[in-house]
Amino acid sequence: MRAEYRGTLIVGAGAAGLNCALHLPAGEDVLVICKGGLKESDSFLAQGGICVLRDAGDEAGYFEDTMRAGHYENDPETVRCMIAHSRETIDELISLGVRFARDEEGALAYTREGAHSRPRIVFHADCTGREITSRLLRVAQKRTNVELRPYTAMVDLLFGVHGECVGAAVRDRHSGEVSLVYAGNTVLATGGVGGLFAHSTNYRILTGDGVGAALAHGVATQHLDYVQFHPTTLYTRGRGRRFLISESVRGEGAQLLNAAGERFVDELLPRDVVTAAIREQMRREGSDHVRLDLRTVRGGKRTLEEHFPGIVRRCRKEGYDVFSQPVPVVPAQHYFMGGVKSDLSGRTNAPHLYAVGETCCNGVHGRNRLASNSLLEALIFARRAAQDIAAGSRARGGASWDHTQQEIDAMLKARRKRVKEETHHEGE
Ligand SMILES: Cc1cc2nc3c(=O)[nH]c(=O)nc-3n(C[C@H](O)[C@H](O)[C@H](O)COP(=O)(O)OP(=O)(O)OC[C@H]3O[C@@H](n4cnc5c(N)ncnc54)[C@H](O)[C@@H]3O)c2cc1C
Known about the structure:
The chain is of the alpha/beta class and 428 residues long. It has 12 helices and 18 strands. It folds into 2 domains: 3-226 and 337-395, 3-Layer(bba) Sandwich (FAD/NAD(P)-binding domain); 231-333, Flavocytochrome C3, Chain A, domain 1. The chain has helices at residues 15-22, 59-69, 76-84, 86-96, 128-142, 209-216, 247-251, 271-285, 300-307, 309-317, 374-395, 405-427, and strands at residues 3-11, 30-33, 50-51, 121-122, 146-149, 152-159, 165-172, 178-188, 199-200, 221-222, 227-234, 240-241, 255-257, 290-293, 327-336, 339-341, 353-355, 360-361. It is globular. The model is unreliable at 398-403 (pLDDT under 50).
């Protein structure tokens, strides 16, 4: 079987994987693989925006909003870390060329989504994820130490005798060939689990592969049942990816209506609460959707056209004119709060194995994610993982890869033996 040796292997090319690659030292040999095309990641789909601490006076409010949305199951230290690094993360994106909406004075414009006590989300029309991730991708493509390899799926993780991760087995999705990538450090950035659900806003290729591989090898995971449903996706018949109608539409004044045209819930409550209210309404009416009226958005037609052009276009394509009628909406799977257990530097309990982005569970979201915290979380903790990898490489005096071919073969042989023994014991 073909084998190659890399400094760091990053599995996933969304915002988390790319930002990790960009923060590794220029001397580190980095391979980023992804299951589909380079632009087929949920990071490209993010509509609403990305949170940021507006000013020092917002610290307590931002913390409280995140904790309340997460039912106070969040890890307070992780939440504080995310908030503390939010401003520098936005500044860094701007320095890379990411464009965010501005007010008349040229200052950053802020919007609001459910469960936020004040507007603190920066955005680029209704395609913030594409604006951020395409820029990260372009910068990564220019890095000489970073190789991006699309249509390459991780099929398993590889471990050494001491339980350390030594890379992954990968499959070329065009040729079907399986090969081994040995790496000094491996980063799981495989995104969410939406592909496992009949109705989800996620790309269908996102099937929790990082979590699956971790589970198979006894790497710690947590809260695998913490799945977020988005209250408002455009109701269409058939299976497949659901089109999201961003929460910031409700933040700007859109109203949820029942069949009689009446409001039945405060639209800005946390997602899980609004989703439950919609489900209850559907149950009472015996219907398969409720309605979202965008005509009440503040600023009317102008706001809709300037802030939400993608949503207006997509609704029109499905036969709904948002300027003259409510659109049918239904909740769908949207985000995964659980995942591979990781610390503030993305470290898992397996040496040399990191997990970042939606694949990981570092406790920042608790039981329910606050809207627009995920891109921020993905970027910050991916950068911290890169810094941790770089520090480890420096401590070892150079590249992070330090095994010879013979050592790797010995590790794999020993591991196979151990797995065989364990299986034998279980059988008894
Ligand atoms: C419609 C939509 C709107 C959203 N809006 C917002 C928003 O406004 N604000 C916000 O903060 N968040 C939003 N989110 C959530 C946010 O986009 C994601 O949580 C975040 O982008 C996840 O980033 P990631 O890098 O962890 O994963 P992703 O961007 O999903 O990337 C996962 C990567 O892993 C790769 N991969 C998966 N399995 C394998 C495998 N076996 N082998 C190799 N590669 C693999 C994929 O190919 C992909 O490249 C939204 C999500 C959706 C779906």
